[in-house]
Amino acid sequence: MTILVAGKTGLVGSAILRGLNKAGKTAVGINSKDLDLLDRKKTFEYIQDLKPSLIIDAAARVGGIGANSNFPVDFLSENLQIQCNLMDAAHVAKVEKFVFLGSSCIYPKFATQPLNEKSLLTGELEESNSAYAIAKIAGIELIKSYRKQFGHNWISLMPTNLYGPYDNFDLENSHVLPALIRKFIDAKNTKSETVTLWGSGTPLRDFMHVDDLSEAVIFCSEKFNENEHINIGSGQEISINNLAVLISNIVGFTGKIEWDKSRLDGTPRKVLDVSKLEAYGWTPKISLENGIRDTVNWYQSKGVAIK
Prior knowledge:
With 307 residues, the protein is of the alpha/beta class. The chain has two domains: 2-163 and 208-232, Rossmann fold; 176-204 and 236-271 and 287-300, Alpha-Beta Complex (UDP-galactose 4-epimerase, domain 1), CATH 3.90.25. Helix content is 43%, strand content 17%. The protein has ten helices and 13 strands. It has helices at residues 11-22, 40-50, 65-70, 72-92, 130-150, 176-189, 210-223, 240-251, 275-280, 288-301, and strands at residues 2-6, 26-30, 54-57, 97-101, 153-159, 161-163, 194-198, 204-205, 207-209, 230-232, 238-239, 256-260, 269-270. The strands form four sheets. Strands 2-1-3-4-5-10 form a six-stranded parallel β-sheet, sandwiched between helices. α1 (11-22) links the parallel β1 and β2 (26-30). α6 packs across α8 (240-251) and α8 crosses α10. The longest helix is centred in the N-terminal third of the chain and has 21 residues, at 72-92. The mean pLDDT is 94. Belongs to the NAD(P)-dependent epimerase/dehydratase family. Fucose synthase subfamily.
């Protein structure tokens, strides 16, 4: 039984590969250097030759608020092509199981919290990342359509905000948690007295260490088989302000935190309802504080020492 993980060098794909190897599974990983998933012909040929029994789609064009706002065409078009090419190729190659990984941004901006799976398509999306969200919603619908038309045992998982080793720490296009780690480490190393962060600090989010997600993906690939997608999250929320304070304390930054309120906040509150996942018998193991310490240590190990 060969498992294919698309997006092997990204935050999610690399963690899933680590988890599969730890579990003794036979897994093959690919990234854009191995196979351009935007190339439909080459994608079909690769999947047909490999004939995996399970494909885990962790490949995507991703980025933070700034990148999503500035490049909506790229986020919509590329993600639609990646997931459609991979799913269509899997169908032709008769791949038994397909796990599509979406994003919690699929839910309406002002949906009732915590976000239940039934909230999908019940209201207006957050404008700053609506292109990416629409692409992921289309992926969910394609999975459901393949189940309906061909009876495939394919599923969709919607992870919360993720962080951990191999995250993107580029301040121009990263997500909030790795960006905060980078900012506070840089500030400490340069002995800055203040750190200026985007927005008001009031939005609420839940975060999950990517190694917990890896375990959840493997669990769901074996135990979950429903037409509707399932949320993967911690069920715990924290304000961006409190997250910043936690990270600054872990890093050892003792200066002042200032907020640039002219910058976008994004969705005011976003925490996933994980009761369905809990009913299946899975819960995360890594606390936010321990997970951030692990991520900071990993970042340091890559040559960015905290002075």
